[in-house]
Specification:
It comes from Ectothiorhodospira magna. InterPro entries: DNA-bd_dom_put_sf (IPR009061), HTH_17 (IPR041657). This is DNA binding domain-containing protein, excisionase family. The protein is α+β, with helices and mostly antiparallel strands. The chain has a single domain, classed as Orthogonal Bundle (Multidrug-efflux Transporter Regulator, Chain: A, Domain 2). It is globular.
Length: 62
C-alpha cells in the first residue's frame, strides 16, 4: 500500500507559478501571459493555486 498524499510515478510533476518562474528565470507575470495566449496550460489545486507542468516549463525555457 502506498503512502497517503504521495502521487504515483505516472503523474507529471507540477509546480506553483512562483516555483515555475524561479526555475525558468522569468516573472510570474510572464507565465500569466503564456497562459492567456494558450501556450501554457494549468490546473487549480485544492488550495486554489495554479499549477503548471514542470516538463512544459522545461520545454518553454530550455
Amino acid at each position: 500500500m502506498g503512502q497517503v498524499g504521495t502521487p504515483p510515478d505516472s503523474v507529471p510533476a507540477s509546480l506553483t507559478l512562483q516555483q515555475a518562474a524561479a526555475q525558468a528565470g522569468c516573472s510570474v507575470k510572464t507565465l500569466y501571459r503564456l497562459m492567456q495566449r494558450g501556450r501554457l496550460s494549468y490546473h487549480k489545486g485544492g488550495d486554489n493555486r495554479r499549477y503548471v507542468s514542470e516538463a512544459r516549463i522545461r520545454e518553454l525555457f530550455p
